[in-house]
Specification:
Chain A is mainly α and 186 residues long. Chain A has two domains: 4-77, Rna Polymerase Sigma Factor, Chain: A (Orthogonal Bundle), CATH 1.10.1740; 89-184, Orthogonal Bundle (Arc Repressor Mutant, subunit A), CATH 1.10.10. Chain A has helices at 4-13, 15-26, 29-45, 47-50, 56-77, 89-93, 112-115, 119-131, 134-144, 150-157, 161-184. The structure holds zinc ion. Zinc ion (ZN) binds next to helix 1 and helix 3 of chain B.
Chain lengths: 186, 65
């Protein structure tokens, strides 16, 4: 096991990464700071349980995930975040004609696997995520990033399953469009 | 059986990533996807998003910033 000071400085080097990770899901810099701080403290306290594991980042991310879910739970209890109404549906409808068929058929994506090897692609993805409405992004990240099931997301965000599916659908379609514009369609 | 529109199809494809679809839904979906390349692409891209977002945790995107 590394000396405590070593361990502490290793943790510190991961702070920017953790902040970004928490920020993507919480959309609230202060809440993200708090989460990361709590996660780092928990990590320090739990150094012994890290011993023998190979990847500090993965271990730390696991701790952070729990802190993020706690924070989302707290956020959901506060009425601070504005509810995103169905009015966002209008611009979204531009994707389809009135009869429900594509206004413009999606293009195929070239070398999607190759993109997953490029840091630049993930930057583009993060930028697309940042453009989503806050609650939509949160639901999407809980589902796809934290890997929670829909009932859990509904519970934490205080919404119905139907609303949840609509938000996830909207997030996916919007992200698709965004990546098409900023990456695959270049 | 009524045929699905592309809008309904993409919505079902998305829900298929979040819940178990009913038998009727799966049949209707398969029928539409068989004839519509736009929806096939959209579906592939939605599944790809999942893969990409999971990888966000592993890749250090912005170490330079
Ligand atoms: Zn279609």
């Amino acid at each position: 096991m590394p000396a405590p000071d070593d361990f502490r400085s290793q943790l510190e080097t991961l702070r920017p990464y953790l902040l970004r990770y928490a920020g993507l899901q919480l959309r609230d810099a202060a809440a993200a700071e708090d989460c990361v701080q709590e996660a780092l403290l928990a990590a320090l306290a739990g150094q012994a349980s890290f011993a023998g594991r190979s990847n500090l980042r993965t271990w730390l991310t696991g701790i952070l995930k729990h802190k993020i879910v706690d924070a989302i739970r707290r956020q959901a209890r506060e009425p601070a975040l504005p509810q995103e109404g169905e009015d966002a549906a209008d611009e979204f409808d531009a994707l389809f004609r009135r009869n429900g068929h594509w206004a413009e058929r999606p293009a195929g994506w070239d070398d999607p696997d190759g993109a997953l090897e490029q840091a630049q692609f993930f930057r583009a993805l993060e930028q697309c995520l940042e453009r989503l409405p806050a609650r939509t992004a949160q639901a999407f990240m809980m589902r796809e990033h934290l890997g929670l099931e829909t009932p859990e997301i509904c519970k934490e965000l205080g919404i119905t399953p139907t609303h949840c599916w609509v938000m996830l659908y909207r997030a996916r379609m919007t992200l698709r469009e965004c990546l098409q514009q900023t990456w695959f369609g270049r | 059986m009524r045929l699905l529109t592309c809008k309904e199809t993409t919505r079902l494809v998305s829900q298929g990533l979040d819940r178990e679809l009913a038998f009727g839904e799966r049949v209707a979906l398969r029928l539409h996807l068989a004839i519509c390349i736009g929806c096939r692409r959209a579906g592939r891209q939605m599944r790809y998003l999942r893969q990409a977002v999971r990888k966000l945790a592993v890749v250090d995107v912005r170490s330079s910033r």
